[in-house]
């Protein structure tokens, strides 16, 4: 690959998503990746799902509020997709058109796994709604941070007391195991796009592995 000058680097368009079970370390690694890419001269936008927009953040509050235990799986699915549709049109697409590197903490794969697998909704339904909400926009690279469920939940409990866990975090351990297996199956299904990163080791090593995968796409 030819060497890119700084002014060329600043206008690289790339869509990267981070996925994984609760407590897999996405927030930490997204921050490290952003700093590394900016140091190399790239223009980077960080965003998240559910949320990413003012309207999306209002939907996020409904989805994650621990008191909303009566939220049925279908309603949950439709709320996630509503947030995503707003997110894609208002934030992701405009940033990509400006030739930015967009990094999102979760995207449509989260719905495929959390609602399609763990909630046992129709995968045909989740796939169809994902296509509609995203306008067929798929990430160039998806990084699944993988670690044992007990490790991820242990990390969550270190930073948040059990009385303050959100609605998803407080799900049964069997639910989180289904989520992990869903991500691993997804990676086997789409190995060209979805890369599994061992998230059980030191943060610096995880970051190094992530950066290696990202630089292959640039």
Characterise this structure:
The protein is α/β, with parallel strands linked by helices and 218 residues long. It has one domain: P-loop containing nucleotide triphosphate hydrolases (Rossmann fold), CATH 3.40.50.300. Helices cover 55% and strands 13% of the residues. It is built from nine helices and five strands, in the order αβαβααβααβααβα. The chain has helices spanning 6-9, 26-39, 54-64, 73-97, 108-118, 123-134, 149-159, 173-189, 203-217; strands spanning 14-20, 44-48, 101-105, 141-146, 194-198. Strands 2-3-1-4-5 form a five-stranded parallel β-sheet, sandwiched between helices. The longest helix has 25 residues, at 73-97. It is globular.
Q: State the fourth-level CATH superfamily.
A: P-loop containing nucleotide triphosphate hydrolases
The secondary-structure element order is HEHEHHEHHEHHEH
Structure summary, number of beta strands:
5
At the first level of CATH, the class is Alpha Beta
Using the CA coordinates, give the radius of gyration. 17 Å
Structural class based on helices, strands and sheet pairing? alpha/beta
Overall mean confidence score, pLDDT = 94
- Cα distance spanning the termini: 9 Å
Shape: globular
Low-confidence stretches at least 5 residues in length (pLDDT < 50)?
1-9
Strand order, sheet with most strands: 2-3-1-4-5
Number of helices: 9
């Amino acid at each position: 690959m030819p060497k890119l000058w700084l002014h060329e680097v600043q206008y690289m368009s790339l869509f990267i998503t981070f996925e994984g079970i609760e407590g897999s370390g996405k927030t930490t690694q997204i921050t490290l990746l952003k700093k590394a890419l900016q140091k190399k001269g790239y223009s980077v936008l960080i965003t998240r799902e559910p949320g990413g927009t003012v309207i999306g953040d209002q939907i996020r509050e409904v989805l994650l509020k621990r008191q909303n235990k009566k939220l049925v799986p279908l309603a949950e699915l439709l709320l996630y997709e509503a947030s995503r549709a707003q997110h894609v049109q208002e934030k992701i697409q405009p940033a990509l058109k400006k030739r930015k590197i967009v990094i999102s903490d979760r995207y449509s794969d989260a719905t495929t796994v959390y609602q399609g697998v763990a909630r046992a909704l129709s995968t045909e339904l989740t796939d169809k709604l994902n296509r509609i909400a995203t306008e067929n926009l798929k990430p160039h690279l998806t990084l699944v941070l993988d670690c044992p469920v007990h490790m991820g939940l242990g990390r969550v409990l270190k930073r948040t007391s059990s009385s303050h866990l959100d609605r998803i975090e407080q799900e049964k351990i069997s639910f989180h195991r289904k989520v992990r297996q869903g991500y691993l199956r997804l990676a086997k299904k789409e190995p060209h796009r979805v890369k599994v990163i061992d998230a059980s080791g030191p943060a610096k090593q995880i970051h190094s592995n992530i950066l290696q995968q990202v630089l292959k796409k640039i």
